[in-house]
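Changelog-adjacent note: as of this version, every example in the card shows the full chain rather than a window. The one below runs 74 residues end to end.
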Amino acid sequence: MEPIRGGWTMLLHVGDLVKMRKAHPCGNDVWRITYVGADIKMRCEKCQRIVMLERPVFEKRVRKLLESAGESEA
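Full-length structure tokens:
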């Protein structure tokens, strides 16, 4: 995480794999990040459904970062 405007925000990259607190209706809780900005777009790894969340909502619902695409590119 890095400080932004007095607060903390997650450092995310397109291609990151995250585990969410609640499972998707298909039963999966693992998502791949497809867009990073003020909103976070992610795709379910099981059913390929795309969901877009505002960053504060995403950061509240995410449990952990499973795989970082930013680290693997270096």
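Structural remarks: The mean pLDDT is 87.
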